[in-house]
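Quick review question:
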């Protein structure tokens, strides 16, 4: 039974395995390590496309494409796709299923278990949603691992002798995490974690898209959905180009107009200054919580594609007064770390001396009413497990009735830092029956157990009757019922997924069509020709001829892709 490590990202996902040679990434059907976390419906209105082929359709068919759905995990929002509604859990399940299939093809054996990384700052509802998605995809989750912890684990395992205090800054497509760690003799300890679950590179892209529209005298709200999506795709390309260039521009046609879109680093910085500023707070919070002085930090490791932005690197250098380093490829670190964790779960020989401990990034507790100076104060938050407690953790406390003849106590389970209960996130509720009596006479014990995946179990015991109420988060507000899971599983099985052996052809055709959409003039005509050439090759149904043509066109497309924004 193989257990893989999976980085389920907002924009890209990866799968990796741990074996005698250490952690290694597994390629998808296109031979690529990054699978875009995008799901689409093909032109026939039925076949599902997952990964690159779907991403390449985003600008042309926004109604038939779903992306960035990780940002909706743990909410009740739905995504409409080709006239149907999907939950973010279902869409994530499709990406996971595709990774599972890729891993099985690469390893030549079934894969039924996984360690999946989640943003450290993901709350209980978001974690539970991730676990549900895996189950629907046919993967048992051995553990959820925090993304910056995974990145640190990958770096630490590769450099086991080192003794150091380091910080991991992980700015991905949709989330930002900060973790401060200490490492000695193969023991890695997370000292503090903080973050923002709704801040990532995609926010910078969205901002640039609007800025470019404004510069071109177009009203963002008046643009059609395809034009907006096209602008977002261009903004992303321009943003990436700016990480290494002094200026970036592209000629294209949007809303029936030919325009040149251009951006300088100064314009970029002005348009995104507030987003950049939001990176500061979690960094300061984690430094404060860890009790570690900035001058004692030996290394600053950047992971996540969005840390390639020059402004982010510069900010990290300013805050930590040292140049950040990049442990390997910032896109790969988290999946490799998740695979190391999978190796640890399987007690792999090669990891005998490695120990990793993590902390809870949030406080967990319940809602209470207190009597202070004869006055009742309701809606108060009483933490049981404080944030940055080492996991696993188990704590209990007693609570008494507050009214005469009270027969029920509602235990509202909350997560967050606000002293006001309703300002925190409600994870669930347990209603407990107590014997009637004078107020304060009846009491209950509430025990919180927070596991290594950041998932919570709650036990409540009534003192006088000895009655027990126990609930793992599975039964709380966030989770799907078993019946619901079975229904979703059926839905997954009934999906018509684009056949794997056609994946390369489909992805290439969609790439060519995408480039045709983005380009102008002669370039556009050239793409038209390439599309016809490939269509002609496909109609021969001669696999060798198709493969030869595909390889050639693939290289040409890649070059055009790299150069159309300059
Ligand atoms: N060269 C670059 N310059 C600037 N931004 C980049 C560059 N390359 C990638 N990005 C940005 O990085 C983001 C994707 O990063 P990554 O693949 O690490 O995210 P993810 O793992 O999908 O998301 P998350 O971890 O938040 O769930 C995108 O917003 C993308 O625009
Ligand atoms: Mg990521």
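Suggested answer, residue by residue:
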């Amino acid at each position: 039974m193989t257990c893989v490590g999976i980085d389920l990202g907002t924009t890209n996902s990866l799968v990796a395995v741990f074996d005698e040679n250490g952690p290694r990434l597994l390629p998808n059907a296109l031979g690529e390590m990054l699978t875009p976390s995008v799901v689409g419906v093909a032109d026939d209105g039925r076949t599902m496309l997952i990964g690159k082929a779907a991403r390449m359709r985003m600008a042309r068919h926004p109604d038939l494409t779903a992306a960035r759905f990780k940002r909706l995990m743990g909410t009740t929002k739905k995504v409409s796709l080709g006239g149907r509604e999907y939950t973010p859990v279902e869409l994530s399940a499709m990406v996971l299923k595709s990774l599972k299939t890729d891993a099985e093809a690469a390893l030549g054996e079934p894969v039924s278990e996984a360690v999946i990384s989640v943003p450290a700052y993901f709350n209980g509802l978001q974690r539970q949603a991730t676990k549900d998605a895996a189950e629907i995809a046919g993967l048992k989750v051995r553990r959820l691992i925090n993304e910056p912890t995974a990145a640190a684990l990958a770096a630490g395992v590769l450099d086991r002798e080192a003794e150091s205090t380091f910080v991991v800054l992980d700015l991905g497509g949709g989330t930002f995490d900060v973790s401060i760690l200490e490492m000695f003799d193969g023991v890695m300890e997370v000292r503090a974690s903080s973050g923002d679950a709704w801040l990532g590179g995609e926010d910078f892209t969205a901002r640039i898209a609007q800025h470019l529209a404004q510069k071109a005298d177009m009203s963002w709200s008046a643009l059609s959905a395809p034009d907006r999506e096209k602008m977002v795709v261009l903004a992303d390309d321009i943003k990436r180009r700016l990480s290494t260039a002094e200026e970036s521009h592209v000629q294209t046609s949007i809303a029936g107009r030919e325009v040149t879109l251009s951006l300088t680093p100064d314009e970029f910085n002005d348009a995104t200054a507030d987003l950049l500023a939001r990176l500061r707070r979690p960094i300061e919070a984690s430094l404060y919580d860890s009790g570690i002085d900035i001058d004692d930090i030996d290394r600053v490791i950047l992971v996540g594609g969005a840390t390639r932005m020059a402004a982010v690197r510069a900010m990290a250098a300013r805050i930590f007064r040292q140049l950040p380093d990049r442990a390997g490829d910032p896109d790969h670190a988290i999946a490799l770390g998740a695979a190391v964790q999978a190796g640890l779960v399987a007690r792999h020989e090669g990891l005998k001396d490695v120990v990793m401990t993590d902390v809870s990034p949030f406080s967990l507790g319940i809602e209470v009413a207190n009597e202070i100076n004869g006055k009742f104060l309701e809606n108060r938050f009483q933490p049981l497990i404080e944030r940055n407690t080492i996991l696993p953790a188990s704590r209990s406390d007693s609570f008494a009735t507050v009214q005469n003849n009270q027969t029920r106590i509602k235990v509202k389970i909350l997560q967050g830092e606000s002293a006001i209960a309703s300002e925190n996130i409600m994870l669930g509720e347990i209603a407990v029956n107590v014997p009637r009596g004078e107020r304060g006479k009846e009491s209950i014990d509430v025990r919180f157990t927070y596991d290594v995946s950041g998932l919570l179990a709650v036990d409540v015991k009534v003192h006088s009757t000895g009655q027990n109420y126990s609930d793992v988060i599975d039964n709380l507000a966030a989770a799907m019922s078993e019946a619901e899971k079975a229904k979703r599983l059926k839905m997954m099985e009934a999906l018509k997924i684009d056949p794997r052996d056609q994946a390369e052809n489909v992805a290439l055709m969609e790439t060519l069509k995408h480039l045709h959409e983005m380009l102008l003039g002669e370039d556009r005509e050239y793409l038209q020709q390439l599309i016809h050439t490939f269509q002609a090759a496909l109609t021969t149904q001669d696999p060798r001829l198709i493969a030869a043509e595909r390889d050639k066109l693939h290289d040409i497309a890649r070059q055009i892709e790299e150069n159309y924004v300059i």
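Why it works: The first helix runs from residue 52 to 55. The mean pLDDT is 91.
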